[in-house]
């Protein structure tokens, strides 16, 4: 695997194990599993869809030191899971389209694999992101669907600019 941040997945075992992208990342030694919240690395970047702060390229140094954590839970339980909060530095991804078969083309209904790959793209670890996406036949479609916004998010000079860009691509 190319240089870049260490990847972790907090696996809550709420999804079909055959469709679980996190489980495959762990099987292929592309991410380290975490099975209890108390084991989350203290200084890591936690991908949290409810965080007030958006991920920007300025989070790169932190992720290189402490890693990125995707919380692998069912979207049906996401409100309850993230309501309790997680230690670490919580960031939300800017809006993107899902490519996974369960949520195809739905805004922000990303699999753990897509969330990790999106973070890697935004942080400038493009090769590592593409390598992750290559493990599923639908993975490269995620990059195709989101190529322009991901490039713009990566170049953004502030979180305000990321917010402006996401509203240009995904007006509410």
Would you kindly provide a written description of the structure presented here, covering whatever features stand out?
It is a single chain. This protein has seven helices and five strands; from the N terminus they run βαββαβαβαααα. The protein is an alpha/beta fold. It has one domain. It has a five-stranded parallel beta sheet with strand order 2-1-4-3-5. β3 (45-47), α2 (60-66) and β4 (68-72) form a beta-alpha-beta unit. The radius of gyration is 15 Å and the shape is globular.
Q: How would you briefly describe this protein structure?
A:
The protein has helices spanning 21-27, 60-66, 78-83, 112-123, 126-133, 139-155, 159-169; strands spanning 7-11, 32-34, 45-47, 68-72, 89-91. The protein is an alpha/beta fold and 172 residues long.
Could you give the distance between the termini? 38 Å
Assign the structural class, choosing from mainly alpha, mainly beta, alpha/beta, alpha+beta, or little secondary structure.
alpha/beta
Question: Overall 3D geometry?
Answer: globular
Fraction of residues in H or I helices: 25-40%
What is the element layout, followed by pairings?
Layout (H helix, E strand, L loop, with lengths): L6 E5 L9 H7 L4 E3 L10 E3 L12 H7 L1 E5 L5 H6 L5 E3 L20 H12 L2 H8 L5 H17 L3 H11 L3
Parallel strand pairs: 1-2, 1-4, 3-4, 3-5
